[in-house]
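name: query_chain
kind: protein
chains: 1
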Amino acid sequence: MMIIKVAWRNLWRNKRRTLLVLTSIVVGISATLVYDTLGRGMVLQMLNNQINTHYSHIQVHKKGYNDNKIVSNFIDNPQMIEKALKSEKSIIHYSPRTLVYGLIKYASNSSGIYLVGIDPGKEKNITVISRSILRGSYLSGIKNEIVISEKLAQKLEVDTGNNIVVMVNTLQGPIGMESFVISGIYRSPNSEFDKMYVYIPLKSSQELLGLGSRIHEFAMKTDDMGNIAAVAGRLESMLGKNMETLDFKELIPTMAYYVDMYDQMMLVFYLIIGIAVMFGSSNAMLMAVLERIREFGVLMSIGMRNMRIFRLILTEALIMGFLGTITGFLIGYLIYLPLSSSGIDFSIYAESLEKWGIGSVMYPVLELGSILNSILVVPLAVLAGALYAARKAIKLQPTEALRYV
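structure:
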């Protein structure tokens, strides 16, 4: 306790130098924390938008379907899969789907699409499409309804109430063609997704494709993002080798890679901040030691052990590091707190952001890793920077130190 009191007093012998070092730590920590939470929020928003727009947490298909989405790669016994999904308590919602590539046509305009057949009541618990309707209404289950995106409606020059023609390959071989009435137009957070995906009732899709009661996939949500891999593993063991159970990391590997890459990038960023702080604190502590050489000589000559002097200098550095870190973290947290609920509006860049699957409002996200990095990196860096100054102090000879000018 005595060392802490002496170290605290020594820090304020030169207020200007101490305040300068503290200010650099505070600004660095608070700015880095805000940057980290905003960047993490952006990456997680991209991931969550893709999960909630289509991919869900886990999908079950016939083996090989994810690599080759053709009409004949269907699940022959969906009732068996549904029974397994109901037995897994961690799965809170699931939705059967058909999904094939096709062509949509209106007058002289046409576009390639992914035609998704869904159960409207179940699908609304999996994706946000039902909550993203701009005009008209979501699917009610009536035959020959279709929901398309705003992007696609603009390209085809259509609106709600118009009849459009969908053409797809059927299970029997020939091209299937059917007319649908546009019941609703949606806009998701991902404009690239919107260019391709259209939705019709599951029964209409099964009839058009000639599938009978068969489907192509089950999409599902779990009660905890942390146990998705375990749930997928249990399902895979239950369903057998002819089925594939893929979690979102396997379905959208690019996004999973972005999340991992961001974590590694921020770790490097914190290390750079730590190295900068280490050299700055090392310079400050070395100056503090050089100013007190005669004082250290007196302490050594009256019997103070070198290790106590060593501990004293390191304690001064730790106090400065923790004081700056805690203050910087609190300032950064106070900036983060209102932004986490209101977000930061980037509407001016909305069109560009939508291409990356990001909403126009970004919400910072503070996770445990960011807190630990903010609180631990700088004090350890300051401590490392003080080691050279502390070592230099204990190498002094008392007689030489007393004569030092």
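note: The chain has a mean pLDDT of 87.
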